[in-house]
């Protein structure tokens, strides 16, 4: 098969579509003939050499895919060759075939094309596990998501809005904020021009927000805690603003608030399977009812993965940049 390989860590030009050995299907796994995958921020870090895949994971980038089951490993029930599926991967999505534990695979939801579904699983599972399973966002709560127009952001805005929360977003331009508004965001904050803590105070009559989904880490840590309501939950999933920060523990204590940081990729297979099952139960009905979609910025052929990485690195996108693998030659 062919896959995007990273010969050496570095810039986008290091991504090369090359002939590689086929993956073997282990017990409890399925082999997927990949139709589409998507660029996630983590793929860029991996390309640069800052994010080593977890033990046992494929070394090719790609944390999600859609496609058809080509083979079923020993002990797998519920899937047969030919089934149309999408999957949460620990790596290996930028390839023509990938082996994945069956618990991380879900049927293609009705209402999404095969290509769109290539950008569904990583963001839906990340948002569902953090915002809903861990932080318990509920109808009537106020939710702040930073980077509201990102792949993660466009997923979080839609899910929180559809499930009855009031949504505050930050983004770096008027056009991106408008995209968030179109998806259901209620309060728009341009992080280049405004202080989000002030805007949260104004928008909540000084109460603060119940849950924050944060991609900035250290740079926003103290301000995020200031923006929380009593009993608020700060969920850190990205470290774009650094890893070491200072927080006023007095504020945290007085608010009886919590700070949690998680990563999905390194979780054990059983935990990922639980998240996939929960996300499927909650989100597939919304997709089928036309209340949630994958926001697609553009679709590029997988051979143009370097260009796709440049676009995402420069934040020139809204939603997901998808990679079409089905159309690629040389399998
Ligand atoms: N822990 C996990 O399991 C997990 C899983 C998936 C993703 N993530 C993390 O989630 C984040 C989003 O991932 P993605 O793939 O959706 O990335 P993405 O599409 O590349 O988005 C990155 C976002 O960061 C925003 N941003 C940059 N500077 C900002 C600032 N000062 N304040 C607020 N937002 C700012 C950008 O906003 P503008 O374009 O408006 O500037 C952009 O929307 C990344 O940090 C990623 O590492 C974590």
UniProtKB/TrEMBL annotation:
<dbReference type="InterPro" id="IPR011032">
    <property type="entry name" value="GroES-like_sf"/>
</dbReference>
<keyword id="KW-0521">NADP</keyword>
<dbReference type="Pfam" id="PF00107">
    <property type="entry name" value="ADH_zinc_N"/>
</dbReference>
<dbReference type="InterPro" id="IPR013154">
    <property type="entry name" value="ADH-like_N"/>
</dbReference>
<dbReference type="InterPro" id="IPR014189">
    <property type="entry name" value="Quinone_OxRdtase_PIG3"/>
</dbReference>
<dbReference type="Pfam" id="PF08240">
    <property type="entry name" value="ADH_N"/>
</dbReference>
<dbReference type="InterPro" id="IPR036291">
    <property type="entry name" value="NAD(P)-bd_dom_sf"/>
</dbReference>
<protein>
    <submittedName>
        <fullName>NAD(P)H-quinone oxidoreductase</fullName>
    </submittedName>
</protein>
<dbReference type="InterPro" id="IPR013149">
    <property type="entry name" value="ADH-like_C"/>
</dbReference>
<dbReference type="InterPro" id="IPR020843">
    <property type="entry name" value="ER"/>
</dbReference>
<feature type="domain" description="Enoyl reductase (ER)">
    <location>
        <begin position="10"/>
        <end position="323"/>
    </location>
</feature>
<keyword id="KW-0560">Oxidoreductase</keyword>
